[in-house]
Amino acid sequence: MARADALTESPPSLVDAATIDIHSGPGVQRFVLAPDKDYVFRIGPESNGFVVTTEIKIIGGRNISIVGGHIKRADNTPTNDAADTGERRTRADSSLNILGQSGVVYVEGLLIDNNGQFGVDGLDLGGGDVGGQLKSGDFILKNIHIRGVHGTSNAQNGKPVQHADGLQTWGPVRSLKIDGMTIYSSCQGINIQPQFSIGLAEVKHLNLRYPIPDVASGGANCFAFWLGDGRHNMFGFPARYEFEDVYVQARKAWNAPWQNTSIAPDSGMPHGVKLVPGYKDRAYWTTLVRDDQIVSGYISEGIPPGGDFCPPERIADDAGKVVYVPQFDHAGANPQGFTGKTRKNHQGAEGQPERGRGRQRNWRRGEINGLDDCEGHRHQACR
User: Fold this and answer.
1) Burial 29-55 (b: 16+ CB within 10 A, else e)
2) What is the DSSP letter of 262?
3) What is the chain's Cα-based Rg?
4) pTM score, two decimals?
5) What residues have CB less than 8 Å from 276, skipping those under 6 apart?
6) DSSP string of 149-176?
7) Residue 269's closest CA among 343, 371, 185, 193?
8) pLDDT, tens digit (0-9, with 9 covering 90-100), for 334-346
9) What is the tens place of the pLDDT at every residue in 259-287?
């Protein structure tokens, strides 16, 4: 089994962090946090780290820590081939959405199972909404497995388009560091195009795979690795990328070279990918290099020699119980054994957490403009 090297990025230092528990339950679990506070999120502390829910949305805050957890998407969204469906949801959707932090977001040892729900992203992150209310922080993602991602970029069987990414940036980020991640997606695996500025995307020990069987119909299933289509409006912001040990499984159902079916910009797009001279299984971008956009490293075709970098059994057993052993000893690293004051997430009538009490009353109710209606952003990769 492949395994990422010892993790080097340590968790952020948390100051007087509030601890918040996430439980199974219907509806969106939405947390709007104070911008100058630190938080530890515990996933399912009373259920061995396993929760079944709709969307978990974490907005704002300073430093955030999430270590150990198994999130399974509830079976509540229409499928593309069901005879009695066809509607398109009117808002963006994901299993875990983390937006607008001013400090460091640290996520380690997480299994996200989208459960085949149509048009649902696995993990969305970023900040800096158009109203200037949210910050653009740093994201450290380690030993994460995302699976069950299902969507299309073309209408199928008379049903509408509903795009889905395993991981997508929704807004600017100061830095994005990935070390040890595996994504299974029938649509798009990872979308980190500079539609928003990216100070640095340091990606290592990442592999992207398609479910078995790999079913493709025209362009319905998208590219696994998306850096945009090379057009100015898709690649118009400063961005730096560094790739190390990044693998993409080629689509077998498409009769085209692997680098043109799994990676974008492909060779038919502006600034398209090319094979590394002397290698048939390595591809890189030679023209996506200018003063404010630098891409270093290459993408390899296939599966890592030892298997997935982060297989699901590293995070949870067959019963769903979290068995992950954290790489660092810090608050929140043991969701079942951590002691201290916590605030339960009781759901209100609209799926909103209730206000906290005492010193943990650090919530702001209400919506933040520009977050819930993101259709114009999420689907540009499909056009």
Assistant:
1) bbbbbebebbbbbbbbbebbbbbbbbb
2) H
3) 20
4) 0.81
5) 282, 283, 284, 298
6) EB-BSS-BTTBPPB--EEEEE-S-BSEE
7) 193
8) 444 333 333 333 3
9) 888 888 888 777 788 999 999 999 998 77
